[in-house]
Design goal:
The protein has helices at 6-17, 25-34, 45-63, 66-80, 95-107. By secondary structure, it is mostly helical. The longest helix has 19 residues, at 45-63.
Length: 120
Amino acid sequence: MNSLSFTRLRQRYTDDTTLGGAGAAPALARALEFIGWRAVREPTPEELAGHLALLLDHCVHEHRDVMALTEGVAMALRDTGPLLDGGLPPVAAYYPAAEALLRRYVADDGVAPQAAPSFL
């Protein structure tokens, strides 16, 4: 299901968090924007990115399990996203978004996604 390499994820995180690095949160915030999180409004991508950075750190330094990280990210997206018709869908419904977010984090080029031009 998840084709993301732990080695690539660890390398990206290490590059972000070594002395002089920006930390993982800015790239995670850009990844959240990429999957459309800004439309949620609260929490902002920057606020949620801080929490996701903790999950990423836990993965890299402790359990080393990309699937467990994906599940944690999916759960965070579900728990902090809007309630749809009064209920929460299963965590598995958020796996595609969590996987896309993690892939985008690893491939981040430092450029925030641009909003599509409006023709209205």
